[in-house]
Write a structure and sequence with these properties.
Protein name: UDP-GlcNAc:undecaprenyl-phosphate GlcNAc-1-phosphate transferase
Organism: Amphiplicatus metriothermophilus
GO molecular function: metal ion binding; phosphotransferase activity, for other substituted phosphate groups
Largest sheet: 2 strands, antiparallel
Order of helices and strands: HEEHHHEEHHHHHHHHHH
Keywords: Cell membrane, Magnesium, Membrane, Metal-binding, Transferase, Transmembrane, Transmembrane helix
Subcellular location: Cell membrane
Amino acid sequence: MPAEPIVLGVIGVCVAAVGAALSRLAVRRRLVLDHPNGRSNHRDATPRSGGLAIAGAWTIGMVLAALAVPSFALVALKLAAIAALVFTMGLADDLYDLSPVWKFAGQLAAAALFIVLFGALETGPVPFAGAVPLGAAGVFLTVLWIVGFMNAFNFMDGVNGMAAGCGLLTAAGLAGAAAFSGAPETALAAGLLGAALLGFLPSNFPRGRLFMGDCGSQTVGFLIAALAVVAAQESAGAASALFVPTAMAAFLFDVAFTLIHRARRRRNVLAAHCEHLYQLMARLGASHVQTTAVYASLTAASLAAAFVMTRLDPGAQWLVPAGLALVFCGLGWPLFARARRAGLLARAETPAPSAGAGEDAAASRQIPQAAE
């Protein structure tokens, strides 16, 4: 890329500064308030418009980067267009509490538009076979990955700083992996996303003065998922399609573990609940800071494992996420058993209309919020 690295570095600093300024503005103006209700544990109405700060700062950064690197302009425009669609859907949910059907339709539309503008995964690391052409299966896997990760990231946005902090680590790691794998455009977009999250984080952690909201969690989730695919495409597979799933293994494991244990107990897997592992940690007495520290540490370790994975033959890369899943089983099962002994899983479930893709909007209120 022709621009000097120092110019892009300055843009990154500006993005973080803009993100911080917009976050403070959202707090002062109390934009899109999350009012306590019968299930709420936060005492005061709290703005949930953090996505405005994150998306706004990232978009400004993409414009500046496109001006500095003209060859980046088309990629920036396409990414920003889809992100705007996702942000609008998330903001509508924050304002009007969309039904799960409408949210799922919006996610499918975003995934479909991504495939139209960027294409689907063409090759992928298959166990024992190596990097193989995916053909039509690549379209299905791309949609499944984008929609699935958007929901997973949304589900995990329930503790101050956790989604933003782990998203920041993953975006920064993806930027580094993409840069070293010959995918500079992905590296730039991911780095700017990390800078935007860095600017937002002080308003969300350790004290929850500003929540990310669906407009934030959906947008960040989409961008991380989409950039994982773009990195694999741009680098011709050098940036493994398994890099982000491995880096975010703690989040993905929590969601999968929770869906499985609820299905085994014949609970409605789409109903709002507070039975994610991170929520059980909080209900067992862990503070927001402690819970976020645990998941940030797990994400940092998973990110390191993802970098190691990229050195392996594509046919053996699956061993790394599989190994992480076994480790997380060893960590998660005792927590689950302790919660069951404490009766946390026996309490009556409170169904809510905002189930499915908006699970975190209701479920996150079931656990203690940081003091206002």
